[in-house]
Amino acid sequence: MSRYGYGYGRRRTKSSDEIALGALGVLAAVVIGAVVVATDSDEEDQAVTADCVDTSTIADDGSYQAVDDRFCDGGSHASYVYVYGGNYSGGRVRGGSTTRPGNVGINTRSGRVVVRGGFGGRAGGGGG
């Protein structure tokens, strides 16, 4: 048996090695914590604007006529859908998507909440 325990020739851990490993552990914890906080705040801050549009009014530039939100609130209005994240100008909406994005807050331009942000958030208003 050696002076430091079992295992002849086993190297004794130096205190400088212990300090380096401890510092590495602390650094890893700080970095992981910062990433988690940044991810959580990004999800809370993300918001998308939804515009109710009439898909039968497509213009040559690919834009649609924006209409009142009530047309997209369910029911039999087949040509009315929400466009998420489109560019609104002069009563028309161009770009965006008709696919509802996940894990973000969605409000209409008039201020109505379609979906609250975060995991599991859901509400009415998919449209057509």
Question: How does this structure look, described?
Answer:
The chain is of the alpha+beta class. Helix content is 24%, strand content 23%. Strands 1, 2, 3, 4, 5, 6 and 7 form a seven-stranded mixed β-sheet that branches. A hairpin with a 2-residue loop joins strand 4 and strand 5. The radius of gyration is 28 Å and the shape is rod-shaped.
Outline of the structure:
24% of the residues lie in helices and 23% in strands.
Topology:
Layout: H1 15-45, E1 47-54, E2 64-66, E3 80-84, E4 87-89, E5 92-94, E6 105-108, E7 113-115
Spell out the helices and strands N to C: HEEEEEEE
Oligomer: single chain
- Mean pLDDT across the residues is 75
Structural class: alpha+beta
Let me know the largest β-sheet: 7 strands, mixed
Q: Cα-atom Rg, whole angstroms?
A: 28 Å
Shape: rod-shaped
- Terminal CA distance reads 81 Å
Number of helices: 1
List low-pLDDT spans: 119-128
Would you report the number of β strands? 7
> Percent range for helical residues?
10-25%
